[in-house]
Automatic annotation (TrEMBL):
CDD domains per record: SDR_a4
Domain NAD-dependent epimerase/dehydratase residue range list: 91-222
Keyword field: NAD
SUPFAM superfamilies (UniProt xref): NAD(P)-binding Rossmann-fold domains
Keyword Transmembrane helix (UniProt): no
Protein's organism: Kiloniella spongiae
Protein name in UniProt: Epimerase
């Protein structure tokens, strides 16, 4: 099959999926996907994406793809970045049947999260470890992963699950948060570690998986330098030539309930599978190189 007959369809053209979509489009692939129809912002987004040559469809839980069988008819690769809700995974709920009928499907990717592992008190997690979610959101993710991998078991569809660490990239990084004045504090919680990944490296991992598909496989997607968030903020401040925000003890820190849920889990995510199995060479193996490139 030649490049010009490759067709990537993304359920959810968000930050990560769009970075990947543009990478594949640059190789001559046909690219299409979905955005939510609800806001004015999305109207502007639709126009921008269509100007880039990406075919855009409206989709959300209450609005299935119109003529899904036709839309997905010649698709060779599918990526879903749509998070599940309380009611489950809306992509599968609405379109599992059409996905199962795709004749030319070579690869399917589902973007999940390392949140499925839950808390390990700073220990290392590998893809085959048992899952121990600490929030309802992570429980929903585990269910969605099972349903996607079920397509491999039931229909032989080549599904791959990618568990993403904290994502950063252009316009979405500690540098941007500091410049905008959003970061008022560094949270002091010694030994509390997070893993992260540059959005370009997510695209690199997905591309590598397409070249070496292994149906039913799960991959941790993160860099090689898990670190305490306060140290990352300190480093970003230094790059910007500003004083870092004050250190505040975790117990005293003001945070939204949503922000607090991210601190339930303390773990180091192992990335050796993407390196050994997919041959990935990360462009940004640590936050220092990633942040420098964003400067």
């Amino acid at each position: 099959m030649s490049h010009d007959s490759k067709h990537l369809f993304c359920f959810g053209l968000g930050f990560s999926a769009l970075t990947f979509a543009r990478k594949m489009q640059a190789k001559g692939w046909k690219v299409s996907g979905t955005i939510r129809p609800d806001s004015q912002k999305d109207q502007g987004k639709r126009e921008r994406l269509e100007a880039e040559g990406i075919v855009v469809h409206s989709f959300e839980r209450t609005l299935p793809l119109i003529e899904a069988s036709t839309v997905l008819g010649d698709v060779t690769h599918i990526l879903s970045s749509v998070p599940p809700g309380k009611e489950g995974d809306c992509v599968l709920e609405l379109h599992a049947a059409e996905i199962a009928k795709c004749k030319n499907l070579e690869w399917v990717g589902y973007l999940s999260t390392t949140g499925v592992y839950g808390n390990r008190d700073g220990g290392v997690v590998f893809e085959d470890d048992s899952l121990n979610p600490s929030s309802p959101r992570s429980e929903q993710r585990i269910q969605a992963e099972k349903e996607w991998l079920g397509l491999t078991e039931v229909h032989g569809i080549p599904v791959h699950v990618f568990r993403l660490a904290g994502i950063y990239g252009p316009g979405r990084s500690p540098l941007d948060s500091l410049k905008s004045g959003r970061v008022k504090q560094r949270i002091d919680k010694p030994g509390h570690i997070f893993s992260r990944i540059h959005v370009e490296d997510i695209a690199n991992v997905l591309d590598a998986s397409i070249k070496r598909p292994r149906a039913g496989r799960i991959y941790n997607v993160c860099d090689s330098a898990p670190e305490e968030p306060s140290k990352v903020t300190t480093y970003a401040s230094r790059l910007l030539g500003i004083d870092p925000p004050p250190l505040v003890a975790f117990d005293q820190a003001e945070m939204s309930p949503m922000a607090r849920t991210f601190w339930l889990d303390n773990k180091r995510v192992d990335n050796s599978r993407i390196i050994s199995e997919l041959g990935v060479k990360l462009d940004y193996p640590d936050y220092q190189s990633g942040l420098k490139s964003l400067l």
